Structure formats: C-alpha cells, structure tokens
Amino acid sequence: MDTQQITAPPCAPPSASGGATPSSGVIHINFRHAAGFTVIGNHLAQHRGLSLAAIGLAAHIQSLPAGAKIGIKVLADRFPESETRIAAALRELEATGYLHRSRVHLPNGRVLTRTISYNQPGTDPATVTTPQPRTRPSNPAAPRPTPPPPPPPSEPAPEPAPAQTPQPPTPQPVAARRPVPTPQPAPAPVLVPAPTARKAPPSPLPQPQSPTPELHRSAAALLADLRRHTPQLTLSENDIHILTPGVATWLERDVHPETIRHALTTDLPNPLKHPAELLRHRITTLLPPALPGAQDLALARPRVIVNPLQNCDRCDRAFRSHHPGHCRDCRTDQQRVEVSASSAEESQRPMAC
Fold first, then answer.
1. Residues near 213 by Cβ (< 8 Å), separated by ≥ 6?
2. Total domains in the fold of the chain
3. Per the domain annotation, does 85 fall within a domain?
4. Contacts of the segment 51-60: beta carbons below 8 A, 24+ positions apart
C-alpha cells in the first residue's frame, strides 16, 4: 500500500479563480507570458488617489525601454488625449512619487529635462538590484525508482577492523589577503537652477502733443476698421481705448491712414495669439519722426554769398565785385600797358661804361 504507483494519473490543476466560479464580478483568464511583459504592482493599478489617465500613463511609461522619449508632445502624438490632460497626469505621478523630473544644465549651455520612473515610490536608486532570470533545468527530474526490498537475514557480518586514526594535515601558511574596498556610490550632482531673466517692462505708448477729440476719434475708427482688412486683428473696446493715443500720435505727425494700416497689418505671425500686444509693439517701435518745418529746412540749406553788380570805370561793362573799379579785361589791359611802359623806361636808361 505504501508503494507509489507511477502509472497513476496526476491530480487535476486547480481552477483559475481559486475556487468556484463567482456568480458576479470579473472572471480572470490568465495566460503566463514568457516575453514582452511588464510587472506592475497593485499599489499603482488600484491606486485610489490617481486618475485613470495617470494610472494608464504610468503603466505605459514603465513599459518603455530606457532612453525613450516621454515628453508631453511625444505622448500627445501617441495618444488621443490633449497636451493639457497629459501634463495634468504627469503632475499627478510626480506628486505621488511614481515620476521625478528635473532640469539638467549641460556644459554647452543647453537645458534638458531628466525623467526618472519608479515602479515603487520611495525606492533609493542606489539600493536597487537587477533581478537575474531563473534558469529552469534542461532535463526534468526523473521519477524516483521503487526502493528494493530489504535483503533477508543472513549470517552476521564480520566486525570491521579498527580504522587507524588519520593524522591531521600540517597547516600550510596562508598569505594574508588584502581586503577589497567596497565601491562607494558617487554623490549625486547638485543641480543649481538657472536664474530666470526678468522680463523688461513694455515701452510706453507715444502720446500726442495736442490731443483733440477729432484726432482720437479718427485713431479709434482706424483701429476698429482693421478687422475688415485682417480678421486676426479683431480688438476689444478696451484694447482700442488703450491703443488710441499711439495711433493719434501717428496721425498728428501727418502720416496717411493707409500708411498706418499697412504698417500694422503687414507680415503678421501665424498663428497670432495676442493681437493687442503686437499692435502696441509696432505702434511704439515703428513711429516715424515728425516732419520738419519750413524754418528747420531754411536753416539746413547752405548759405550762398552773391557779389553785387558793379560798372567798369573804363568800359562801363557790368561785373560782380564788392568794390567798384575795372572789370577783368580792363585790369588785364592796364597790366599790359604798365609792363610795356616799364620795359621802355629800362631801354632808355644809359648803359654804364
């Protein structure tokens, strides 16, 4: 009766549900995966503080290989959820410890976002060890054979001779082993956040020197009419009220309304998110200078000195000079006569012996 029957059929495997089939609720049909699977703890799959999108996103991130891109735009292209919903789910995972994101400053000045995923929140990365896969024996264990029956009693066996006591071996000198130093984990780099540059305040809008109701009315009408030419520049009443003094300054400086409309509506960015801020920037930076007056232009002209007209005392010919006298031809003839007279006087002088 105590002999094992090798030919007996094995017991039936237990049910997948661990007992009788439940009358309601979920029924699991599990298949053992040999490759291509990810182990996720119930603390994540049944977390009561996370949304369903955050749990699914955490499961997707844990299934990705190391080095995979998990930016908001990459996840938005992969799933039908919007960038806002994915960003909210990532913040939930950060708050519960399943995700950690930090900014890393590279030596070349670039800033990268480093993301660490935890399948168990609160785990120290230095103490995590990679589990080694368990290898199954190549040959299954053979069934134990039936032990042979005990031999029948026979003559008593002779007593064994007393064994000689073995001598203990001579201990050999063992060289002292140098202790192997335990490698210490490298200290984590301290990330210093980069100082955020303060945004410069916007430049003030130009104000007209002589504001009049007609000037403000024309400027407001020009701003309200921009949406007929460019629907992207549809402004509210408050925006028109704020930008009216700047456009009034353009009109005060004798700028044509069509020129103002062209300067405000040309080369618009696509898409245009803040039309009022763009118009404020263009009104301030593209403001032309005031036209110079007649007096300013007269002072800028070079002064030309004109000599008055004089009549020649000899030939009565008109010539320009500050002083009366002879014209140029008469002065030349007079110089010739004087030269000839001097040469004649020199010729009449007696020569010394």
1. none
2. 2
3. yes
4. 51/89, 51/92, 53/81, 53/85, 53/86, 53/88, 53/89, 54/89, 54/92, 54/93, 57/86, 57/89, 57/90, 57/93, 58/93, 58/98, 58/99, 58/117
Cα–Cα distance, 351 to 353 (Å, whole number): 6
Q: What is the rounded average pLDDT of the residues 103-116?
A: 85
What Cα–Cα distance (Å) separates residue 333 from each residue in 51, 312, 315, 326? 116, 13, 12, 10
Q: What is the span of the domain harbouring residue 244?
A: 213-285
Q: Which two tokens stand for residue 298?
A: 């007269």
Look at residue 112 and tell me if it is in a domain: yes
| pTM greater than the 0.85 cutoff | no
3-state secondary structure of 111: strand
> Number of H helices and number of E strands within the chain?
11, 4
Boundary-marking domain end, from 285, 315, 337: 285
Residue 198, in any domain of the structure: no
Mean pLDDT of 24-37: 87
Report DSSP state, residue 209. Answer: S
Q: Where among 95, 120, 145 does a domain terminate?
A: 120
CB 260 within 8 A of CB 250: yes
Whether 222 is in a domain gets the answer yes
Residue 311's beta-bridge partner residues? Answer: 318
